[in-house]
Amino acid sequence: MTTRATAPAPAPARTAFPALGTTAELLATDPSALPVAETVLRDELRAVDLVCSRFRPDSELTRVNLNSGATTTVSERFAEALQAALRAARITDGAVDPTVGRAVIALGYDRTFASVRPDDARSAPVGRPAPGWRQVSWNPRTRHLCLPPHTSLDLGATAKALTSDRAARKAAAATGCGVLVNLGGDLATAGSAPDGGWHIALADDHTQTVGTRGPAVTVTGGALATSGVRVRTWRRGGRVLHHIVDPATGEPATVVWRTVTVAAATCVDANTASTAAVVLGERAVPWLRSTGLPTRLVAPDGTVVRIGGWPQDLPEPDSGGPR
Known about the structure:
Blueprint: E1 2-6, E2 13-19, E3 22-28, H1 34-52, H2 60-66, E4 71-73, H3 76-91, H4 101-106, E5 119-120, E6 137-139, E7 144-146, H5 156-175, E8 179-183, E9 186-190, E10 198-203, E11 215-219, E12 223-228, E13 233-236, E14 239-242, E15 245-246, E16 251-252, E17 259-264, H6 267-280, H7 284-291, E18 295-298, E19 304-307, E20 314-315
Parallel strand pairs: 5-13
Antiparallel strand pairs: 1-10, 2-3, 3-8, 4-7, 6-7, 8-9, 9-12, 10-11, 11-20, 12-17, 13-14, 15-16, 17-18, 18-19
């Protein structure tokens, strides 16, 4: 599930474009500030792609993974992304773990999703547990990193959310207006919200037709993130696979929740919780209750579970406003 951002009239200015294998969406309460905010967002997107992409041979992440078993010094930007990933692993007790890289690749997600074979006749490999984040040797003071031999990091669970947080914060500072950044369901706000708040439409797929009625929620600050198993799927050896891997098994997480949407102060925290909930399955509800984070979980049959004060669904206005 992803989110599509909307706002009541007078509508903030909006732009959207492809990025990071999804859609980058930007809203600004001051239309004249949109070009500056867009420049900030594009700069952040270029930076995270060069640092954290699994699919670029020249990315820093590729270099780090190729050097597994040896100590390497990483950049400040990589260090920030790594620390976010390791913190996510720690607070979820390993349900979100950056050492799942080899498992994700083995399942067939070894290239940009647009290039993944939708139906691969080869049999799926037997899953193996991820090495585990506790095996990563990391010194934040010196920025020295050593991965266990034959270990690959995948920072996808947190790096995109971190980019939403950074871009929203920097764009609001540069423009002095309210800003919303949405990267395929990782949504962060900064600055003053428009009158009535940011109106967020919820959908399984952010590419769904604009104007389709569905549930919505209004936020005045903070962040939302949605994780789901309906969009990034493919078949291998007759099995339907998805991209959220359970580190304990190296297999796609058992589908107990179709989508999970979480509200938090930062997009990194929201995405960490939503991804963990998909992995935890039946254990997600008590775990989420312990966090106190407002959450909306949708089961495969469409049953909705709301916890942490998540409101009843509001109907989405059928308008041509920004999404």
